[in-house]
Amino acid sequence: MKVTIKNWNAIAQWRWDIGKEFDETDDEDLCGICRVAYEGCCPRCKMPGDDCPVLWGECGHVYHMHCIMQWIEQQPPNKQNCPMDRKPWITAERKTANTATQQTQAVQS
Amino acid sequence: MAGIASRRLQKELKEIHTQGCPVGIQLLNADNFEEWHLSLEVMGESQYQGEVFALKFRFEPQYPISAPAVQFIINEKYKAPVHPHVYSNGHICASILGNEWSPVLSVIGVCVTLQSMLASCKKKERPPDNDRYVMHAPDNPKKTRFHYHDDTV
Amino acid sequence: MASPGVQALVEAKWQSAFKTLNREEPGISGLLKTSQARQLASDFLRPRALSEPRRKYRADVMANAFRLLYQTKQLHGVLENFLEEMRQQRHLITEDVEAYMHEYEVRPYAFVLVTEVHETADSQIIAQLVHRLVEWFNAWRPTTETDGHPGPLESLGHVAIDSYTDAFQTHIYSVLPPSFSSGFKDLIASTLPVSDPAPPPDRALWDAFHALGLIERYESLISSVCYELVEKHVVETCAGQWSERMLQDLRDWMQNKVLPWMCLPYAPGARTMEEAGASLHGVGPRFDFHVCKTLCDLRTSEIFDIIVDYPDSIDALYDLKECLYRVDQRSNLVQSLRKANKKRLLHPGADTKDILAQYVSTIRSLRIVDPPGVLLYKVADPIRRYLRDRADTIRCIVSSLVGDNENGESLIDDEPPLPYLTKDAEDYSDPHWEPEPIDAGPDFRANKPGDVISTLVSIYDTKDVFVKELQVLLAQRLLAVTDGNYEKERRNIEILKVRFGEQALQVCEVMLRDMTDSRRIDQHVQSQKPSILHPVIISRHFWPSLQSGSFVMPQKLRSIQEEYAREFTAFKPDKRLVWLSHMGSVKLELELQDRTIEAEVTPVAAAIIELFSEKDVWTAGELMAQMQRLDKEHLRKGLNVWVDLGVLKEEGADKYRLLEVAEESSKKEGTVSAPKPKELPAVQTTQQQQAEQMRVFWNYIEGMLTNLGSLPLDRIQNMLKFARGYDRSIEQLGMFMEAARREGLVVVRDGMWRLNK
């Protein structure tokens, strides 16, 4: 018997690639600031995904971009730290498996 | 902008309801997203054995980006603990409520921190500048620029 | 011995009397004349049998005689004498009455089934009796009309006629037996203008009634004949006739048919309607009220079916409204409808969507009858409470919200959606403000409904449940869309936003956007590297819980997924894909030795058949081991797809063989196409979960009924309460049993359930 697939309508979920292996049973990862799942959206947004992306810190912590930016922006320049580890916040350039070692830059505005 | 604070607090409240509070901490009142009351008790051996305190949290719309205003409640039922970082009007001199605030902290997180602050107290005494501070203190402790007594809490 | 003085006095008196009697005539000639006059009058007045021939009297002679008697002051005595003689003669009348009544009563068919004909025959005897009595009445009446001209009887004075009439009527009433009244009623009824055109009225008969005073005496009886006429007519013409206004027709009928007839008893002698108007002044409104009351009673008894027929029955509802203005029977209406609803609607056998449809019709119907909504509030309460307890109510409401009814009817039709808000305070500046009706309850205003949908939604305390259900429904529908046309869903969401608020429907917005994004992404991926795979990429947290659990796809299928995922990540570098492998559909072609089969199947079935392309025989256990994390249920379903298509064959215990060559029985010509899987995407509804749980309890029920024969629902419910984890209401149990009955598992009789053997 020869099986030929003609067409396949499938359903998939997208996830932020936060650098860890997908596990079926994992607890949802939450943004520490708004406590909403990364794949959800921050309190200011209505649409998840590209409209409400997440930012990776050099330190490895991940937040909704809008959440961490709002925090950083209202801190004095010498205290723009990651809320988790209080180390200076440096946004990582896409901390994915294939692009992990790209140059990093601090987010300042 | 009612959104941020209320949505975050909603989540915290849900968590409290589903997971419960840590030992010694109880939610007294969280009828709105502006002010919550919790009771605080130091478990095990401590200077405050048998004493129950109450905390008042006041939230601004920007919470958790902005820190909550936290103080001990003083009324017929509750007194402020006698502690080197707690003024007799209930105001608390703790860096995590001021410049060390982090948006990843939560109401329960603050309670736990204050609980351990009390637990680690060796000597029950008021801050040295208590009388002077209390005389001029604003109603909201967030309006005060504390000089933090030490950075260990 | 009397003294001379006394003698003189007596003498003088005698002389005076004599002079009066003798009318100052000489000698006793005057006295003689008086005596003759008296003789003449007595003979004239004497009551006699009708058979006895009556002498002719000359009017002028009689007039003279009466005048003489009057002048000599003897008239009174003559009349006394007449009445006394009447008393002695009245047995003649009595005998007559008895004879007629005997005939009336012994007519055998009077006791047989009463039909028109018999009634008429019977009442004709009464009519004859009435005419006979009038004959008596006229025969004995002290008048000189015997020669056809009204004589100067007025000299006798009205007093005389009145006392005669009184005496006569008193007598006949005392001798008429009780059966007369029913006969009389029949007789009156026979005069009713029931035929069209009505025959001219029998005036002689009505004159006779008036002469004998029967109208006054039997006034209530005549009224009741008329009431019965109205009732009969209303029921005959209006019962079940809901598609036109009837009240005006009824009033016209009263005006044109009944009123002229009513003139006969109530306005005798009136020649025109204007003349009659005055006499009928008090009677007309009374009967108009009765028309309204009868129609109101009829419509009240029919109200449930009228509502079923809405909107075809709108006219009946307008009639009812008008009747209720006139007749206050609002509470009757409420009770009647509540009772009918309980009996016919709110029971386990009724489908939720039917209950909802009837509820919606009830809302619309009662708003016509009672715009303030008090009646609706009272009627709706039990329906709402019942619906709240039904598991599938929300689902039904939501389906109808998005126009998903099987018959294509949506509950949202003509009404513009009102914003989701309720006014608490009364707005007295509203020119249409009206005070609350007096039968409104204290909590009435607060529940005043907006539009139908908000009324339905308000069955529940929170609209969240709807949004959740809506999400499930939308998910099913979106995932079933294959042509990329989501316009209908988008429009529905827009409508619902107005109702539930934008915030609540945000998740639905995200779902819609996922759909369009997926299409865009797929176009991009296909342009980079064509694939037969076309996924819908969804945002988790925004979709209802979909069937997850990832089994291991065979290598060939898995590499298709992986390739697509790689292209996706290249396009969206921050994102990865997680496949929900259970969901979706696969179109494939099987080339077997003797045939080619095309089929569109679930991914599980596709995975299974892919494994069979490696090896012809698999056991269920081997397949499970190969695919991992796949539950038996899905495996069995997947295998069955191919067994049904004659591709696989079950051989012994859980062993399946690929049929490279079709077996005789299932051999088909050329290419076989399998029907597309009909199932909706496996989005779990709360109802499905409940139904599944309920099946567990079926074992208990079956055991119970096996051991105990038949049981009423409440017993079953009480016994099930001992089962662990049983938390169903008796309503839910009822629905379940009803479903079991439809499946032929049980039968119910007089509320007792037993197993169907």
Automatic annotation (TrEMBL), chain A:
One of its GO terms (cellular component) is anaphase-promoting complex. SUPFAM superfamilies: RING/U-box. GO terms for biological process: anaphase-promoting complex-dependent catabolic process; cell division. GO terms for molecular function: cullin family protein binding; ubiquitin protein ligase activity; zinc ion binding. InterPro entries: RING-box_E3_Ubiquitin_Ligase (IPR051031), RING-H2_APC11 (IPR024991), Znf_RING (IPR001841), Znf_RING/FYVE/PHD (IPR013083). Signal peptide: none annotated. Residues 42-86 form the RING-type domain. The keyword Nucleotide-binding does not apply. Gene3D superfamilies: Zinc/RING finger domain, C3HC4 (zinc finger) (3.30.40.10). It holds the Pfam family zf-ANAPC11. This is Anaphase-promoting complex subunit 11. It comes from Gloeophyllum trabeum (strain ATCC 11539 / FP-39264 / Madison 617). The lineage of its organism: Eukaryota, Fungi, Dikarya, Basidiomycota, Agaricomycotina.
Automatic annotation (TrEMBL), chain B:
Keywords: Ubl conjugation pathway. Gene3D superfamilies: Ubiquitin Conjugating Enzyme. Residues 4-153 form the UBC core domain. Pfam families: UQ_con. SMART domains: UBCc. This is UBC-like protein. The lineage of its organism: Eukaryota, Fungi, Dikarya, Basidiomycota, Agaricomycotina.
Automatic annotation (TrEMBL), chain C:
GO terms for molecular function: ubiquitin protein ligase binding. Keywords: Cell cycle, Cell division, Mitosis, Ubl conjugation pathway. One of its GO terms (cellular component) is anaphase-promoting complex. InterPro entries: ANAPC2, ANAPC2_C, Cullin-like_AB, Cullin_homology, Cullin_homology_sf, TPR_ANAPC2, WH-like_DNA-bd_sf, WH_DNA-bd_sf. Residues 453-628 form the Cullin family profile domain. It holds the Pfam family ANAPC2. SMART domains: APC2, CULLIN. GO terms for biological process: cell division; metaphase/anaphase transition of mitotic cell cycle; protein K11-linked ubiquitination; ubiquitin-dependent protein catabolic process. Belongs to the cullin family. This is Anaphase-promoting complex subunit 2.
